[in-house]
C-alpha cells in the first residue's frame, strides 16, 4: 500500500524505511554531482539496488541538482517501470541509460549502486586519447584500481551496454570514451567517491602533461599498495594481469616487468612527436575548459 506518497516493493516497515532513505541519498548525491560540475543540465544518472529483482533509479530528463525523492522510479531487471506511480513521477520515465546500470548489476552481484556522470576533464582526456589506466596516485590504486577507457559507443544504446559488459567485471570505475564515467560501489556514496577520485586523477594528469613529465610509481611501491587493496577486500578478479602489463607488478613471475611502451615499433623521433601532439591537444582542451597554463 502507498506510504507517504510511495509504493514500496517491500512488505515490511523497516524495508520501506530503507527505500525512502535511498531515495533521499540519490537526491543528495545528485545535488553534489551538479554542484561539483560533474553533470550539467539533465546529464547523468544514478541507481541503487533494492533487491534481486528491483532497482531504484533517477528519471530521464531531470536536472540532478533539482530532484526530489518522490521523483525516483523503481524498475525491474528488464528496465520496466513498476509499482504505483506518485504524483511527482507519474509522467516520468526511467533514465535512458538504465540498461547500462542493469548490466552492471547483472555482471556483479556485489554492486549495490551505480553512478554515471560527465566530468569534463576526464571526458576531455578521453577525446585527446590520454588514458587514466596508470599507476600514479596511491589512493586511486587502492580505492579504485586501474581505470580503463571503453571504445566509443552511442550513449543510451545497446552498443554502450556491450562496451561496459566485460570491463565492469574487473573494474570499479570506467571511462566511457567521449561520454563520461561509470562508477560502482557497495553503496551510493562509495560509487560517488570513486567518481570524484577519477576526475581528480584526470586533473592531475592534465597538469603533468603541461609540465611535460610524470613518472609512475615504481613497481615495488605499487605492490605495497596492491597488498593494501587486497586486505581491504577491493581487489577484482584478473586485475593482476593488468597491473603486470601496465605498472610492471608481476608477482606470479616473481619479478617486476618493464611497463609497456606505446608504439614499440615506432622510432624515438615518432614517440617524441606523439608526446608533443598530446601536449598541444591538452593545452587546447584546457583553454576550452577555462584553465590557463
What structural class do you assign from the helix and strand content? Answer: alpha+beta
What is the CA-atom radius of gyration, in angstroms? 20 Å
- Report the order of strands and helices: HEEEHEHHHHEEHHHH
Task: Please tally the helical runs, counting DSSP H or I stretches of 4 or more residues.
Answer: 10
Helix amount: 40-55%
CATH architecture of the largest domain: 3-Layer(aba) Sandwich
Q: Numbering strands along the chain, what is their spatial order in the largest sheet?
A: 3-2-1-4-6-5
Tertiary shape: globular
CATH superfamily of the largest domain: Class II aldolase/adducin N-terminal domain
Largest sheet: 6 strands, antiparallel
Mean pLDDT: 86
Q: Indicate the CATH topology of the largest domain.
A: L-fuculose-1-phosphate Aldolase
**Tally of structural domains:** 2
Strand composition percent: 5-15%
CATH class of the largest domain: Alpha Beta
Q: How many angstroms does the end-to-end distance come to?
A: 59 Å
Would you identify the regions where 5 or more consecutive residues have pLDDT less than 50? 1-7, 252-270
Amino acid at each position: 500500500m502507498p506510504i507517504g506518497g510511495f509504493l514500496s516493493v517491500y512488505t515490511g516497515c523497516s524495508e520501506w524505511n530503507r527505500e525512502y532513505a535511498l531515495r533521499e541519498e540519490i537526491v543528495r548525491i545528485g545535488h553534489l554531482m551538479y554542484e561539483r560540475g560533474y553533470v550539467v543540465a539533465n546529464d547523468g544518472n544514478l541507481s541503487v539496488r533494492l533487491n534481486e529483482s528491483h532497482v531504484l533509479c533517477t528519471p530521464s530528463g531531470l536536472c540532478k541538482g533539482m530532484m526530489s525523492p518522490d521523483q525516483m522510479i523503481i524498475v525491474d531487471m528488464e528496465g520496466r517501470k513498476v509499482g504505483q506511480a506518485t504524483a511527482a513521477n507519474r509522467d516520468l520515465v526511467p533514465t535512458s541509460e538504465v540498461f547500462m546500470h542493469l548490466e552492471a548489476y547483472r555482471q556483479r552481484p556485489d554492486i549495490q549502486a551505480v553512478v554515471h556522470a560527465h566530468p569534463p576533464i576526464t571526458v576531455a582526456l578521453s577525446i585527446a586519447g590520454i588514458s587514466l589506466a596508470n599507476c600514479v596516485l596511491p589512493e586511486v590504486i587502492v580505492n579504485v584500481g586501474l581505470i580503463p577507457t571503453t571504445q566509443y559507443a552511442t550513449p543510451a544504446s545497446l552498443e554502450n551496454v556491450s562496451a561496459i559488459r566485460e570491463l565492469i567485471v574487473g573494474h570499479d570505475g570506467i571511462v566511457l570514451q567521449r561520454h563520461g564515467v561509470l562508477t560502482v560501489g557497495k553503496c551510493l556514496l562509495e560509487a560517488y567517491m570513486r567518481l570524484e577520485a577519477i576526475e581528480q586523477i584526470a586533473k592531475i594528469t592534465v597538469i603533468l602533461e603541461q609540465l611535460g613529465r610524470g613518472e609512475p610509481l615504481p613497481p615495488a611501491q605499487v605492490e605495497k599498495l596492491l597488498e593494501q587493496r587486497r586486505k581491504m577486500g577491493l581487489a577484482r578478479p584478473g586485475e593482476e594481469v593488468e597491473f603486470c602489463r601496465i605498472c610492471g607488478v608481476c608477482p606470479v613471475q616473481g619479478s617486476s616487468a618493464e611497463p609497456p611502451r606505446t608504439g614499440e615499433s615506432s622510432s624515438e623521433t615518432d614517440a617524441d612527436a606523439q608526446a608533443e601532439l598530446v601536449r598541444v591537444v591538452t593545452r587546447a582542451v584546457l583553454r576550452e575548459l577555462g584553465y590557463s597554463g
